[in-house]
Amino acid sequence: MATTTTPVTDRQAATGGPPKSQKQSGWSRRAPLLPALIFTIAITQAPFVLTIWYSLQSWNLVRPGSEQFVGFSNYVDVFQDSQFRGAALNTIIITGSCVVISLLLGLGLAILLDREFLGRGVVRTLLITPFLVMPVAGALLWKTTMFDPVYGIINWVLGPFGAGETDWVSQYPTISIVSALVWQWTPFMMLLLLAGLQSQSKDVLEAAAVDGASTFRTFVSVTLPHMRRFIELSVLLGAIYVVNTFDQIYMMTQGGPGTATSNLPFYIYQRAFLGFDVGQAAAMGVVVVVGTIIVATLALRLIFTSFVVEES
Amino acid sequence: MSKRGGGALLSGLTWAIGLIFFFPVFWMVLTSFKQERDAYTDTPSLFFTPTLDQYSGVFDSGFWPYLGNSAFATFVSTLLVISLAIPAAYSLSIRPVKKTQDVLFFFISTKMLPVVAVILPLYIVSQQLALLDNIWFLIILFTAMNLPIAVWMLRSFMLEVPKEVLEAANVDGASTMKMMRQVLLPMVAPGVAATALICVIFAWNEFFFSVNLTASRAGTVPVFLVGFITSQGQFWAQLSAAATIASLPVIIAGWTAQKQLVRGLSMGAIK
Fold first, then answer.
1. Which of B258, B269, B253 is nearest to B151 (CA)?
2. Is the pLDDT of residue B232 over 70?
3. For chain B, what are the domain ranges?
4. Interface predicted TM-score (ipTM) of this complex, two decimals
5. In A, which residues are within 8 Å of B23 by CB distance?
6. Which end of chain B is more exposed for a tag (fewer CB within 10 A), N or C?
7. Nearest to B247 among A3, A134, A264 (CB)
8. pTM of this structure
9. Contact call for B27 and A33, based on CB within 8 A
10. CA proximity to B198, closest of B259, B115, B156, B114
11. Minimum Cα–Cα distance from A164: chain B residue
C-alpha cells in the first residue's frame, strides 16, 4: 500500500543525502518527473496565486475597470457573511452524513459480498453501477423519476406508509441531496472495503475459527483491526471527493430552497458567476483552501495515522 | 441446516440490496423506451409498447456535437495524462528522486484543494486569452485534474515490477529509453490501461469546469444535459434517453474493469 508522509518523517529520511558526485545522476533522475510536476504547478498552483490577488480587490466582473485594491476588507466581509457560515455548515452536514452513511452501508455490503454465493459477480456489478452513472444524469434521475411528488417512485413505494404527495426536494432538500450522494458513493466505499476484506490472510481467520472464536468475536478482534487502514482510506478519499460536491446541488436544488442546501462550492460559484463579485468569491476561495489545509493536516496527523506512517 | 438457511437468507438480502441500488438505473433505461404518456402514470408502468422515438428526439436536438466534444476532450486529455504520468511515475518508483514522498504528497494535495478556489482565475484568464468555450482549454484542465491520480496509480504498478528484471536489462547494457520501451512498458501495460480507464471515467463525467468554461461550441455531454433539462424538463422519457446515452460509455467501461476501478479510485493505494 502506498503511503503519504508528513514533512517531518521525510526530513529524517533525507538526512545524509548523496555525495556531490551524484549530482548529475540526480538531474537525470529528476528530468522525467519535471514535465508532470511543472504542468501540475502551472495549472493548479498558479491560478491560486491569482485567486489570492483577486481576493484583495473590489471587482465586479460585469463592470470593466471597477477593479480597486481594498486590502483585506473582502475577508472581513466573508467572516461577517452569515450565508457563508451557513454554506460552511451545510458542507459539513452534507459531507459528514454522506461519508458516514456510505461507509456503514458500504461496509455492510462489502461483508455481504465477501461470501461465496450464486450470482455474486452479477450483484457486485449491479452495486457498482450507481457510481458509474454520470453524476449530472444521476441527479437528474433522482430529482424527476424518483423524488417527483406525483409520479415519483419514492412516493409510490412509500404511499402505503402515508407519504402522500411529499415534495421531497423542496420539503426535505438536504435529505434528497444526501440520498442521491449516498447512492453514488456507497459503491465506492464498498469496493475499497471489499478489497480490504479480501486482503485478509485466510490463515489467521482459520486459526481464529479453530480456536473456537465466534464469528462476531473474530470480526471485532481480527477483521476490524485489519480493516482500520481501509476504513481510514475510504473516509479520507470519500471526504476529498464529496466535499467538492457541486453536480447534485446544481441539478437538484440550486442550493435552495433559499440557501438550505447551498454548500461552499455552490455558494462561491453563485457569488462568482451569478453575482459577478470577483473579490468576495476569491476571498471565500482562499478561506476555504486555508480551512481545508487545516482540517486535512489535523485529520492526517490525528485520525488517519495509518495513512501517514508506515514508511517503507 | 440452520446455517445453510441463514446463508441463503444473506444471499437473498444481498441480491435484494443490489437490485434496489440498481433500480434507478434500470428505471432510467426503461423510461427511455417509453412514450411520454407512459412515463407519467400514477402507478409506475412496467409494460408498454417500447419506442425509439426518445432516442431519435435526443439526437435531433443537437446531441452529436456535444458527444463529439466529450469524446475528443476525454481521449486527448487521457493521452496527455498518460504521457506525462509514465515518466513521472518512473522517477518516483524505479529510479526514485530524493524527495519522492514530498512530491507524492504534493500531487495528492492538489486533489484535496477545492476546485472552486481556482475557477475564477481560470475563467478570467481564459476570457482574456479568448479561450472561453474552447475545447483545448478544457483538455488542459482535465489533464491537470487526472494527472495526480495517474501518477499515484502508475507508481504503484511500477513498484510491483521485480527489481531483478530491470537490473538484468541494465547489465545487458540496454539504454534507459530502450529499457523503458522493451522491458518496463510491456510489464506495466495492464496498469497503463487501468489508469487510462480511470482518467476516461473522470473526464467523461466532469461537470464543474465544463459548465463554467464552455457553452455551445466546446460544450460537453453534461452541459448538454443541463441545457436539455431547462428546455425539456417536463419530458421524462426524453430526459431518460439523454441520460442513458450520457452514462452508457462509462458504465460499460467500469463494468469491464471492476478490479482496476478500485485501484484507480484509491489512487493506487489498494492493490
1. B269
2. no
3. 61-265
4. 0.90
5. 153
6. N
7. A134
8. 0.89
9. no
10. B259
11. B42
